Every structure is written in structure tokens, then in C-alpha cells.
Prior knowledge:
By secondary structure, the protein is α+β, with helices and mostly antiparallel strands. Among the domains are: 3-138, Four Helix Bundle (Hemerythrin (Met), subunit A), CATH 1.20.120.160; 184-270, Alpha-Beta Plaits (2-Layer Sandwich); 407-506 and 554-587, Heat Shock Protein 90 (2-Layer Sandwich), CATH 3.30.565; 592-732, CATH 2.40.50.180. It is 42% helix and 20% strand. It is built from 27 helices and 22 strands. β10 and β11 (579-587) form a beta hairpin. α1 (3-30) runs antiparallel to α4 and α21 (451-465) runs antiparallel to α25 (556-565). The longest helix has 28 residues, at 3-30. Mean pLDDT is 77; it is low at 152-179, 278-341 and 736-742.
Amino acid sequence: MDDLAQFKQTFFSECEELLGDLEGHLMALQAGEGDNGTLNAVFRAIHSIKGGAGAFGFERLVAFAHIFETVLDLMRDGRLEPTPDSVLLVLHCADILSDLVKAAQNGTELSPGHENDGRKSLIDLAASIGVDADPNAADAALAALDAQLAGGGGLDDEPEPVVAAAPEPEPEAAPVAPAKAPLLKYVVKFEPRDALYQRANEPLILIRELRELGGFLAKADAEAVPSLDQIQPEGAYIKWEFEIETDRGEQAIRDVFEFVLDDCLLEVTCLNPPAPTAAAKPAAEPPKAAAAEAPKAEAPKAEAAPAVAPAAAPKTEAPKPAAAAPKAEAGGGGGGETKAARSIRVDLDRVDKLVNMVGELVITHAMIAQQTEHLHADQHPELANGLAELSHHIRDLQESVMAMRAQPVKSVFARLPRLVRELAMMTNKKIRLDMSGENTEIDKTVIEQLGDPLTHMIRNSCDHGIETPDDRTAAGKPPEGVIHVSADQRGGRIVIEITDDGRGINREKVMKKAIEKKLVAPDAVLSNEEIDNLIFLPGFSTADTVSNISGRGVGMDVVRQNIQSLGGRVHIQSRPGQGSSFILTLPLTLAVLDGMVLKVGVQSYILPLANIVESLRPEKDQINVVANQSELLRIRGEYVPLVYLHRIFKVPKGIDDPTKALVIIVEMEDSSKMGLVVDEIIGQQQVVIKSLEENFDPIRGVGAATILGNGRVSLILDVAGIKHIAEHESQQRPPRLAAPAA
């Protein structure tokens, strides 16, 4: 990957984080919990995205973000009120911005005019207070000037020099009340280059950012502005000098210019650096001498302000952070530096490679341990202790590496409040969303595939579960329905529950719809659990009409498929009139697996522990043979079909008599069960998952592979695939004329 591709990847990773934070801040604004700090955070997120997009030439994204941040700037300045309607518009525009970011990331183009409605609404909102947010307006004005010049209009060729202050200037810097820590006085010189304007950056917005840091005075030097007939639309002719009094530290000032540093000249000089400690005095003295020599270094620049010593800036920067660090931290400026120094951005492929290498280390250790099993520990105590210590360290290393891939589920949960609010508005219901366990961590791969299932279940709860306020009042419930989403780690798995206090599943209606759609036989007798699971069938829906929320028969079947693909389960608990709960059980990681090692003929297989219910050696009177030669195991009044693994995988020397073998009862995602007939259970083991799909086509009945301690490859079984093979083979068998007596 070349440098540009790496920078782009970093930019899009930052965009993902910024858009996630943006969603949370906008939800706070919509709930009436936001303040000016929230608006500032929203503005900075949009501004950061625009700055990065401009660096990579994503002009369409830059153009929309420019209008977006202009409106947000008006809101945080108090000129625009963040009313419910305007916040809804901002939410809508945040979605458009997200679409533009994804299109840029995928190298695709959205349909022409995708952002036009949002763009027009933003411009109209700004126009309501007399502000023209349309960047094309400036181009039109310049075109009019060009036309006037071409027609010989009476404009002076040599305009008077312009000295401009900040966009909303004050005659003098407002006095700042002394803080506990002394305020630092800075002189900032800012000289934009043409590229800054070409990338749709606006110096006035940067100036407003600076003004929020504390006492502020701005001076503009417009001596370089040419005559009107020589002005270029994107030319940089004005440079600025700012005087700032702040307790935030130099880094806070530089952060304002973070995305334009390559497109400008920037000098930051502290006029009253903190008094150095006794130990630091020798290091602090040279800047004074440098300051005395400053006029000589600046001699070619006649316009330089005498109060500023630019030549000293490079020399004072080195000792300054060491002396100012404690005060910067107190003021909030140093905290950002500390946080940034404690985290780095690592490509996920590198983490995956590290995970695989640790997996190989686990396998190698298991092989060494197996080769030394015949050695007695009392005869080789140092070797035994070394292997035990190595095992402990490898397990710690493995857990640490797995934690690197883990992320809080908060990134997925953050999307849900807005979804619930929108669905409540669309259905005319009152719904409150409660969440807990947002900091529970799970593998990044699982996180990425969890969004759609959660969205479908929330939509199902809002549309089918929660009643209207009138219906809830009639049922003796509060008018406002509640949906609770929680995440919790239980053992080696993550459990996510989506619970509502609605009407519950109408099993009579579900059964009626299933019969109408010929999904079950009219005379079928199903348990409550089996009826509840009918909602996961493809094409099933109890909605009487099709809407943009539900009724098309897609959604819950997608939930089950996605969760199954992650090695998880979905369970339903429903109480008529009280509500329903959807319980997702997911693995913490897709890199390792807790499994049972099985011997089948001359082969060994790994069966995931998550699927195992129990194991037993049945008696002869528990085995029943049905017409198509299939065998059923009767256990506690329930009949479970038997499946011989050595027949499924054509393994020689497998045991055919279940009373001499072992039967492992496994449960499917639809709560159905089957008994796998194996020769013996070797033991439980945590194994490293090796994907087969990178080198082979998908294999029915096999989910992945691993390497055991003896160096042999063992296949990890997929119970859903095995069930499919067994059912297919059962249909191909001819019926038996007579069944032997049990």
C-alpha cells in the first residue's frame, strides 16, 4: 500500500469515528440536552471531515460540508436557534454527509443531486437571518465585477490599503478575568496560501475558532491585495496577526489550524512563557538572547510588528512544553496531547496477522507439550515448570492480542436512539429507549455485522411490539412504551437483549398467517416456542399492510442468518400482554473457539461447545426406527433424530451401533435438536480458527479448520450444515417394508 492509500485509509477511519461522535452529539441536541459545547463539537467534526476531504480532492464532499459548517457556525454563534426543525435538518444533512463519505471511500458516485435537497434547506435556513451560505454567490459576484471591468466601469485601479479585523471585531480585546493559573499571551501569524482557498477552507471560520480560546484581537494585513482587474477568485492576498490571552496552551492554538497546516504559514509565539523551575533555568536562558537578536533576523520584513519576535519562536518551542506542561493540563490544553501520545492507529490487517501468529504459537506449544507427555515431571522438573510458565504466558499474550481487536458495542448502540425516535414519530407512538452495557467489548468483526440485526429487531419492537398510547392506556399501561437494550459478557460469550413492554407475540395470529402462507400444515400442533420461532421464516410477516417500516416479510430471517454466520444464537421470550425479549448470544471473538474434540473412525473433529446440550450412551430401547430407515432417540419424552458422522463424511471404521458409541445432543438456532453419533470424546480444547474459504469453496457441514497439538488438521463442524445433509440423505432413502421391534 502506497503512502497516499495509507493516508486515505487513516482519513476514512477518522471519518467513521467523527460521524459516530456526531450522531451522539446530535441526539443530545434533539433531546434538548445539548449546549454550546455540543454545537462546537458538531462543528469541529464537520470541519475536520471537510479539511481531510479537501486534502484528497473529494470536491463534492467538500462543497456540501462547507455549507453545512457555515450553518453550524451560525448556530454556535447564537445567530441561529437550534430549534427542533433545524436540528432535524442537521440530522438529515449528517446522513447525507455520511453517504458522501462512504461514496468517496468506495470510489463510487452518488446519484446526481443526492445532496441537493439538504443543500437547499441549509442555504434557506441561513438566508432566513440574512446570511448567504451559497458558495456560488461569491463566484457570481466576481463574475459581475469582471463584467464591469470589461465594460470600463469606474473602479479605481489602485485601492487604498485595507486593514481588517475579525469578522465580528471588537475595538480592543475583551479583558479576561484572571484564572487560577496565569494566562499566557500569544502572538499568532497566519498567512494562507492559494491552496487553502482552493480546498474550500474559510479563514474566517478559523478565526472564530481562535476567538473562543480567550481574549482576542485580530489584525489583517491587506497590502498585497491587487487591483480588482488582477484579483483571482482563489488567490490568497490577506495575512493575519492575532493576539490571544488563554490558559489553553499552544497546542490548542495549533489544533485550530490542524487541517490547513500544509496550506499556510503559521507562527505561534508566547510572549510570557511560564517561569522555569530552578532545574530548567539554564535551558530557558537562550530564548532571551534569541529574542534580542530577533530584529536582525526579521530585517527584510519591514511590516513586522516590533512586539513580536518570530525568530525566537523556533528556539522557544523546545523548552516551552516541558515548562508549560502542568499548566496546560490544568487548562485543558495539555490533556489532548497526553491522550494522543497514549494511543496509536494500527491497520486491522496487522492486528489480524498478529492474532494468527499468536495462534501458531499456541499450536506449537501444544505440539511440544504432547511430545513431552511421556516424560515424568519429577524427573524433569525444570522442563515441566518451564512448559507450565510458557503456557501461562501464551494464554496472557493470546488474551491481550484478542483485546486489541475488541471494541465497545457503544458504536452500534449509538445509532439506536435516533432510529427509535424516527420510528416513534412515524407510528405516532411514545417510545423511550433505555440502554445499558454500552462499554461491553466484542470483536470488531462481530461489531461490524451487528448493526443490521439490531436495527431489524428495534423496528420489529417499535412496529409490532409497542402499542399506541390509547391502547396502552386501555390495557392499564403508561402511555409511553419502553425498549431496553443491554449487553453483558457471560463467560466466553456476549449476550445482547432487546426487551420491550409491548403486547407480546400474538401466537394465534402468527399461526394463522403461517397456515395462510403454507409455512406449516393446517393440522400442525406446535409449542409456544415453535410458534414464536415462525417469525424467523423467510417471507413471514404478520403486518396487514405493507409500509416503509414492515410488511414485506424480510427482516427477522435476516437477523437469524446474520447471527448464525457469526456463530451465535437468537432466542425469543414472549409474554402476551407484557412484552417480548430477543436474546442474542454471540462469541467474544471469531479467532478462537471453545470446542469438544471428537473421534469418529480414524478422524478427529471439533464440535463447538455452544451447540452442545448433553452427551450420553443410549440404551437399546431408546432407539426407534421410522419408515425411511432413520433412527430416533427417545429422551425424556422427546424424539431426536440420530445422525452418524462417519456416514456423513464417509469416514471408515466408524461405530454403527449407537449403544456402543456416544450420542451428543446438539441444538440448532431454530431450537430443534439432533443427536450426533461419535466413537468417543477426546476432551475439551480451545482451538485457533483457520478459515477454509480462502483456499477452498464452502464445504457443507464444515465451518472452519484448526491444527491440533499432534500437528494434525481437524475440521470444525457446522451443525446446521450437517442437519441439511442428513435431511437430504433421509429423503433419498427408500422406505423400509417393516421396522424391527424395538
